[in-house]
Amino acid sequence: xxxxxxxxxxxxxxxxxxxxxxxxxxxxxxxxxxxxxxxxxxxxxxxxxxxxxxxxxxxxxxxxxxxxxxxxxxxxxxxxxxxxxxxxxxxxxxxxxxxxxxxxxxxxxxxxxxxxxxxxxxxxxxxxxxxxxxxxxxxxxxxxxxxxxxxxxxxxxxxxxxxxxxxxxxxxxxxxxxxxxxxxxxxxxxxxxxxxxxxxxxxxxxxxxxxxxxxxxxxxxxxxxxxxxxxxxxxxxxxxxxxxxxxxxxxxxxxxxxxxxxxxxxxxxxxxxxxxxxxxxxxxxxxxxxxxxxxxxxxxxxxxxxxxxxxxxxxxxxxxxxxxxxxxxxxxxxxxxxxxxxxxxxxxxxxxxxxxxxxxxxxxxxxxxxxxxxxxxxxxxxxxxxxxxxxxxxxxxxxxxxxxxxxxxxxxxxxxxxxxxxxxxxxxxxxxxxxxxxxxxxxxxxxxxxxxxxxxxxxxxxxxxxxxxxxxxxxxxxxxxxxxxxxxxxxxxxxxxxxxxxxxxxxxxxxxxxxxxxxxxxxxxxxxxxxxxxxxxxxxxxx
Length: 543
Known about the structure:
- The chain is an alpha+beta fold.
- About 20% of the residues lie in helices and about 35% in strands.
- β13 and β14 (about 190-200) form a beta hairpin.
- Residues about 1-25 have low confidence and may be disordered.
């Protein structure tokens, strides 16, 4: 079976989707075949998107997303189709009869409207001309979460996966980087050439991307940990001066990528795509974006940002191979990628002090942490806030501490086996956890993912020389007065002697006391000494 047929079948199995729209889609989009003509002097983008889709019943219209696109014509089998643009709703409605159970295609010719007002800076497509800080004219896309519709007509929901082909025509002096494999590079005129990129694995709409500039291209190689005969190309695009410069140095910044890929492949599963690449852009309002098989990174990362590079690479598993079903479940992308930074450090150094520092660096306790991790936007905060990055990573470490390493990593592998190249939501992950542990851990997700706030403990100690008894008192504080967290904690007494006691703060009483028989007054008492559990701890001040 060819790559296309194999993954076409996979898409048919896993992509019967329900979008955030109030109606069910009765068609599966299987493929986007894009031809883009981009003028690197003016920044104009003319596109043609041929969409292949499968109907499950007779339908009279196709609804796509479109925002700020000038539709020139829509055709199917050389027949012009009637359509309606609803710009305020960001919809493109194509009216035509499509028979049930058949594969259909239609082609949309369009132009990117540079003058169209897009709220909150939602450009989708970005173009900058050369100046003091921009070394060469540059064009690129940035779509997450819902800006793919700004540069190509599509079904713009995270739970729809397709395969893609993208042909990009540019001035011959420019290179165009994109997802998947570079199938060909041809000169179609004396002054222009076409880069033909193709994906062989399902990709969600917002991860489709390209970047164009007068780049230098260099490569590296990753040898698969599961098969030493399999080599995966590492494909990098940066401005020529940044390849190995004094300040911006891509060769130096990217040198650990093969080791990172090996580490994640050992922990999760083998690297899941055709190739891996990175393309540097500037200006860029983000650090990095995990575009499938071709991550877009901020130029400043070429000065060195090991954890940022590890984070975006980890997204190839968490976010790209398995994508959140809805944006309410964004923590399944971002918390997993953030915790992967810790796992990379653990694999690289095994230094417990460094690992503890990493966990401490996650402890932001910013105002948005008063919200639940699940559904940030539904609570009135930004989708990409700290709760889905650092707060969620601390929750994953807590889950690992509760179930143990063997079980935790088995959970991740089972999660991959069940949902690879598809999408999942929070309830899907909970079912995997319960299945692997053979326990009902819904309480854990109720208090850490669905509930607001985070656990806060005040502690105090009292030692009785006569009875040789140490009393440790713990009192839960927090913004959620009706919720008491269940916390399996460790108390470490006298750090040099490493006497550790396991306790369970059972979530029934806000204040609890624990007694320990100690021959003399302890030198130190540490609650949650190695940051195993996500909880903020302060010592109670004596009055």
